[in-house]
Every structure is written in C-alpha cells, then in structure tokens.
Amino acid sequence: MYVPAPTLQGSLVSASRHARFVLAPRLEPSVSSSFAAETRRRRTFAIISHPDAGKTTLTEKLLLFSGAIQIAGSVKARKASRHATSDWMEIEKQRGISVASSVMQMSYRGHVVNLLDTPGHKDFSEDTYRVLTAVDSALMVIDAANGVESQTRRLIEVCRQRDTPIITFVNKMDREVREPLDILDEVERELGMPCCPITWPVGQGKSFGGIINLRTQSMTVFEAGSERRPEEFETIPLTEKDRLRARFGQAFDDAVEGMELAQGASAAWDHEAFLAGKLTPVFFGSGVNNFGVMEVLDAVVDMSPPPGPRKSTLIVNRQPQEKTVQPEDPGFSGVVFKVQANMDANHRDRIAFVRIASGRYTPGMKLKVQRTAKELRPTSVVTFMSQRREAVDEAYAGDIVGFTTHGGVQLGDTITDGASLQFTGLPFFAPEMFMTVVLKNPLRTKQLQQGLMQLGEEGAIQVFKPEAGGNMLLGAVGQLQFEVVQHRLATEYDCEVRLEGCQYTGARWITADTPQELREFENAYPLRMARDAADTLAYLCTSPYDVRLAQERFPKIHFHPLREHAGLALQTAG
Ligand code: G4P
After folding, report:
1. Mean pLDDT of the chain
2. Which of these, 207, 317, 432, 537, has the minimum number of CB atoms within 10 Å of its CB?
3. Mind listing the pLDDT tens digit for each residue in 182-207?
4. Residue 355 domain-assigned?
5. 51: CA distance to ligand 1 center in Å?
6. Which residues line ligand 1 (CB under 6 A)?
7. Domain co-membership, 57 together with 39
8. 484-516 pLDDT, tens per residue?
C-alpha cells in the first residue's frame, strides 16, 4: 500500500536517490564468439497485456527504434495483412484480438533481443502459458486509464508461478488517465510485489508534460506525434528546477511530490529482487507517440536476465535422472514451445518454434527429436529477424529458431544433437469444455483426421479419440478455440464440421504403476477411455465426483489434471 509520507512540497528528488539504481553492467558488442559471451548478450522476453492496452504499438516502436524495421506501421500492417492472407485470422479481426503469437529478433546496443508476442485473449491462455515458458522475462503493458485488467491478471499469475522477472510499462499517458500513485498501488496489489518507479509522469492527457527519469535525474519533455525519434525529445536536468517549474507549473511540483510519496512507500531498487520476480520496475509513457519507449528497451537490456539454467530429465542406463542444463553447455538442446501451421498462406508449412536452451545451432547440424529418437529433417530453419523469416547462420541459448517440418514434432518435444534428455515444464491443462465433431461430408474423413491431428499437435485444441470408437472429441479451455478450429478445418483442410455439445466436462490423464492395473481400469470404464493427439490415455468425466469415485475404486491409478509432455514425463510420473 502507498501510505502518504510527509509532504515534501516543492522539493526535488535528491540526487542520492540515483544510487538506488544499481543495474547490470552494460555489455558492449561481443568480440568473443565463445558460447558464454554469446549467451550473456541474449535477452528473451515476452510482451503481455490485456487486449487494446497498446502491445502491438509498443512492439512496433521497439522494433523501429532498435533499427529492426525501417518504417513505422509495418507491425500493424502485418496484423492487417495476416487478416488478408490467412482466412482464419478473420476471427481475430472480427473480434479485435490477437490469436496467434509470434517471435521477433532485433539487435540493440550489442545485444540480441528476442521478443515474443502473446495472444491477449483469455481463451488462448494455454498458448500464452507455453510462450511464457520460453522467455527469461516479461514486459507488462498497462493502459493507464484501465489499470490492471482481467487478462493481464491471468498472465501475471503465470509469471508469478515461474518467478519470471516483470518490467511494467504504463501506457497512454497522453490520455486522461488515473493517478500514477493509484496505478502503482493497483499493480502492487495485483502483482503481489513491490513496484519501483524508474520514470515518473508530469501531468497527463492534454497537460502531459513528460517524464522524469530517476536514473538520469532529468526530465524528458513530451511532444505528441509519431514521427519523432526518441533522442529528439528535449531533456532538461532536474537541477534546473526553476526552468522546469516555470514551464510546467503546478504539474511539475505535483509530479515531484507524487514521485517522492511513491519512493517513500515503495522498495528501493534491488536488482536481485527483480531477477527473483519479487519487484517490478515501472515506466510511464505513450507508445503511440514514441515516448518513454527507449527507456523500456534500455531496461530490457540492462535489467532483465540473460538465459539461465533449465531443468531436464536425463536418461542414464534407461533410468531418468534430473539434470540442470546450463546455457553455455556445448551440446545443443532446445524445446518446442509452439507449433504453428500455415503461418503464411504462401508457404502452407508448419513451423516448430524451438527455444534454444544450450549450445549453438549451425546449419546442417544433425539433430534428434528425443521423444521418437528420430532424426529431425527440417526443410528449412529460420530466425525471425524483423518478422521476416531468414535462414539461420548460428543461434545460441535464448534464441528462437523455427524448424519447418511436415510433422514428427510436437509441442514439448526436446531436440538435441545427441544427449538423451527431456525438458520439463511445458504444460497441457485438462480441458474444461468438450464438443463432438460431426463431419458434414463423410468422404472427407481422412482430411478431418489429418486436420485434427495437426491442430492437436499444434496445441490449438486438444483432440480426443474415444477408445470405443465414435466421433472425435475436442477439448478446450476457452470457447473461442472451438470457433478457430472449426474455421481452420473448413479453410485449411476443406472439412465442414458441426460441433455438438456432449456430456463430458473434464478429463484426467491416466497412468498406473503396472500394465495389469491399467488394463483393469480400462476394462472397468471402456466408454470413458480416450487418447489425445500425443496418444496419451485419458479418462473422460462428467463431473468432479466422477473422478473421485473412480479414484476411490482404483486407488492405485494416477489421475493427472496436467500433462507435461507425452512419453518421458508421464512414464516417470507414475
Ligand atoms: P494491443 O496490441 O494491445 O491490442 O493494442 P494496440 O497496440 O493495437 O493499441 C490499441 C489502441 O490503442 C490503438 O488504437 C492504438 O493506436 C492505441 N494506442 C496505443 N498506444 C497509445 C498511446 O500511447 N496513446 C494513445 N492515445 N493511444 C494509444 P486504435 O484506434 O484501436 O487503432 P489505430 O487506428 O490507432 O491503429
């Protein structure tokens, strides 16, 4: 809570406050090609926000000012062209939401910055969750008029579970918005962690004067317009207080007072606490006016962490053992956190997005999918420089590479150049909504099966095939997933389907200690057994009591509400 401290009317923030910001050392362009040096200059982060808070606008500005794109408007244009080129994005357009998520890489101040976009709509929270497993930090964009909104709240929960460091950007200060102290108070309550303001607004809306930067002890003066480059904004040192007062009047004094109140009540900057996901630095600005944007990009580079170690399971003498993979380990390893078909209507391909966890990727490398022990033979391997796909020369831990495949790769798959290990932590949640798929034209059965298999592998929806036969079942966590899948089946696989309600309300993935126990269970509930897209056995239920009863009857059977990954993780779970 922000408890008002004694008013320091008219005084300026003392320069000693500057000492609060002890940041990570700046890294200059690496001359060493060693893995460790390359890894240290990577920053991989996701932007999270409620729809309409300004995520797309900010993304575009970050790309523009890092030099990754030349012309403003291309991310927005991409949003628009996606609508034009890919029919299923029509749904996105109609509802003004971002369904798909994408990856963009840029260089900034000698660093390689990987930015992962996330879908804003709650019905795609599973996809977002998986994207968040692939990043080392998150940038949370908040609309200053609306504060922390429902979808942001969910995303925060996910970050909190993983202790992901969060940088907060309070956007749209050029509008009539809420008081900054009020916003900080809300962020603090919602995040359950202290805020540490790094910039502070002077006025808002029509009287928005600019931001005070507590790091540089200066004020950057706001001017509306989307043409200006960030370095062109006028900057006035806080020591010139008479000049600032004369120019901004009461708004300046109020800002200083508010800032001091916030500082008095909030925690001092603590880099370790930020890295542990226990404190968030807060920035104010206006994305559409290019204002306060560079401060955020600098914070991503200076504050947020490089790739860290990742937990995995290693198979030694056929026995699973826990292993922590370090980013600078020489062996290549990575995990598929997203699979997307038909990203570009001109390509009609499927891309497996792999977050590199260790080692270096170079073209021509022999790689194996650990789940199947099969060699990965991609038709192309790309990075996502400025939203274009470009062939990869080399990539290191923290980078995202896209393997174009014709199948054989699933969400959660681990890919290595040899080591038999499996990364853990990429979750699938038991669906809470089910629909039966009824094909309108029975001659399209094969296409339907292929479509459902691919969409299931992509994680767009969960597909269950009842063991006893009959229509396929779709399981989702959000209603919109059904609509997207129905639309995609029609446009991408030429399968018109009808979706009908069914009695199921949940599913649990099933494991047992012995095959005998599993058989007995299957025999007891033949009509309730189904297999998902990863061929994992599941028990379909009609109420929570259902599971409880089955559990009482079969105490040795394990019912999993969450599946980590096909194969390894489940085999060992029992
Ligand atoms: P999203 O990706 O989070 O959904 O948000 P997006 O960037 O698309 O922004 C949502 C709307 O908010 C857009 O207006 C955008 O121009 C506006 N916006 C973003 N940042 C600011 C800001 O700092 N100040 C103000 N005043 N508005 C901002 P739109 O009318 O929906 O689209 P457009 O026609 O402007 O592109």
Report:
1. 83
2. 317
3. 999 999 998 888 999 999 999 999 99
4. yes
5. 10
6. 49, 51-57, 76, 120, 171-172, 174-175, 286-289
7. yes
8. 899 889 988 899 999 999 999 999 999 998 999
Residue 343: half-sphere exposure toward Cβ, Cα within 13 Å: 22
Nearest by Cα to 238 from 14, 8, 20, 6: 14
Q: Which of 142-156, 474-488, 537-551, 557-571 has the highest mean pLDDT?
A: 537-551
Threshold 0.85, pTM exceeds? no
Q: What is the CATH number of the domain that holds 94?
A: 3.40.50.300
Q: In terms of Cα–Cα distance, which of 191, 194, 116 is closest to 147?
A: 191
User: Does 7 map to a domain?
Assistant: no
Ligand 1 pocket test, pick from 47, 48, 55, 57 with the greatest ligand atom count within 8 Å of Cβ, gives: 57
| pLDDT above 80 (res 256) | yes
Ligand 1 pocket: which of 47, 49, 50, 52 to mutate (most atoms <8 Å of CB)? 52
Measured by CA distance, the residue closest to atom 35 of ligand 1 is 288
Amino acid identity of residue 188, one-letter, is E
Cα of 296 vs centre of ligand 1, distance in Å, is 18
Average pLDDT over residues 18-37: 50
Is residue 428 situated within a structural domain? no
| pLDDT number for residue 11 | 34
Domain boundary among 252, 269, 303: 303
Cα–Cα distance measured from residue 137 to residue 140, given in angstroms and rounded to the nearest whole number: 10
CB 409: neighbour CB atoms within 10 A? 23
